[in-house]
Amino acid sequence: MNAHADCHLSPTPPPNLAPPMPVPSPKLLPSSTLDTRTSLASRLTRLALIAAGLALAVAGVLLNVALYFQARDTLVDDTVAQARVIAVSSTAALVFGDAAAAAEILGSLSNVRSIDRATLFDRTGAVLSEHHLHGPVVHARSESMPVHVADYLLRDDWLSVLEPVIHGGAAVGQVRVEVPMRPLYLKAAATAGVTALCAAVALLLAYLFAVGVRRDVRRIERRMRDLAYVDTVTGLFNRNAAGEHLAESVRAGQAGGEGFSVVTIDIDDFKKINDTLGHAAGDALLCEVARRLTGALSPSARAYRFGGDEFVIVCPDPNGFRDPDCYGHRIGEALGGAFLLDGRLLHLGGSVGVARFPIDGSSASEVLRASDLAMYRAKANGKNQVVVFDAHLRAASEQSLRIESELWLALERGELRLFYQPIVELASGRTVGAEALVRWQHPQRGLLGPADFIDVAESTGLVVPLGGWVLAEAARQLARWDADGLAPMQMAVNVSARQLGGDVLLQQYRSAVDAAGCAPQRLEIELTEHTLVDNVDVNLRLLNRLRDWGVSIAIDDFGTGLSSLAYLKHLPVNKLKIDRSFVDGLPGDAGDHAIVSAAVSMAHALGMQVVAEGVETRAQADVLCGLHASLAQGWLFGRPVDAQAFAQRLRDQDAAQSPLSICTAA
């Protein structure tokens, strides 16, 4: 990948692993919604405190009023009781007009600090004796009052209680006791102050508690915002943040601002590193990738991690897309240096796709999708490449979507067909098996071969239900031919790597043979070398379970894989199917001859049968006979045909008295 001079990017950082990047400052995060929610919560908190304060104030006023009236009533009752005691004690003094005795009786009030003045009146209303808080006074003043009155009077600052003195059923005088109200008012004021202080302390504590809770809530909200917008492994912004940033960039661009580029990066073969070295090592590697990516960007660009090993970069492009793949190539160079991880030097590549707004899409989702499509094309082109989205990719994407939609309908409407290509025994020339090949009877485009739709089925996952249908239909066809009295034979069905996940293949296979009443030995499964070695340990357990059921297993396209020989002796395989690319060179190509010869010898040594694929000429068949290959298929023996034509072939073969041996004829 060559750098472009006008990229304006910083030099590539050195290839040393760094610790995980710090989480970006929250002020850079999209936060308008959270800020609004926080402000509203603060206002609600203040409103709750005001309401609590008002409630406390009202409750305090009511409490103090109640306490005041209770204390006043108690004071009146106590004063009336005291006046009655004095009235009883003063009867003799009033009857005899003994002022000294009256003064002595009133003097006993010296210990009652609440009574400020007590006056004893005779029957005429004249003062016989009077007592002040500081001592008795005899005839201190010429004051008279009407007698025979029992009542009390409340003035602003005094309580006056009148009590008649009764002797022989008649009033002989009257007692008046006066108590100041000031102590009661002071007590009420003190009670109100204490209540207000308690309310203030309660409100302060409530406020401090609310502030603490609000602080905790804000901290949690910040943490939640970080989790919502920041990748916890690398510290880069995540998919959510990218979505908001792209939406803002699109709005700015539509309002007359500049365009931008979106670069999608997928680390090639990262899963293999993760599985081999562990997730901790994989996370450390992702951190270093993030550091290098951010180091390769201009200040106005921003990097995001979308999950797994996928990164996205949004680059403002003020130059009118003069060099749209500038960032893509420079990013590829940033990832090209060696990575030092746990003492190992690792070399990574990245498949990079570039799309531009508004050229490749008028919305954030369209530009992202265009960038993704370009990245997948880079990966399909051999990885570690940069692809810029163009009209051809858009057309291919639209066609893929159309095929996917129509293929779903084809499964529902029964538009799929199976064609059968004969597998011939070279020694006898007899058809001993068939390979089931799927075709699509398209309502507008006619009969379509696998090349027109299998890639879409694989990429979208449709190959799983499609593969299940092929297994079921192949088993049903074997049962039909048996019912027609045709010679028993074996049917080979290709299986996708997608079907190997979980127990999908086991369930599909068991359902197919059980429903058709077909013996498992007759429905053979074909797997490519690449499918087998992709996850060999898991696949080995799956194949052993199939083998336990009696299922025949064949390796298709043998020789095209580079790492399967180490596992071949451990795999429960019955057949090797030599890829047609090696058969094409026969008989003239010495290299192909040596490869085919070695494959046949190895298969025989391991107790396997050999099927040569793509046999088109008699000369090729002669070479295979000389190498003692047992089975072959190809156009020399017959092209794929429908079930009816294949059944007729079998009838013709049964009618022949002595079928021609290809090897004998050779």
From TrEMBL:
Stretches with biased composition (Pro residues): 11-25
Record domain EAL: where: 400-654
Source domain of life: Bacteria
**GGDEF domain sequence ranges:** 258-391
- Respond yes or no to whether keyword Transmembrane is given for this record: yes
Ordered alphabetically, the record's keywords are: Membrane, Transmembrane, Transmembrane helix
The annotated region (Disordered) lies at 1-25
Which CDD domains does this chain map to?
A: EAL, GGDEF
Please give the start and end residues of each transmembrane region.
47-69, 188-213
Signal peptide boundaries:
none
Instruction: State what protein this is by name.
Output: Diguanylate cyclase/phosphodiesterase
Taxonomy of origin reads:
Bacteria, Pseudomonadati, Pseudomonadota, Betaproteobacteria, Burkholderiales
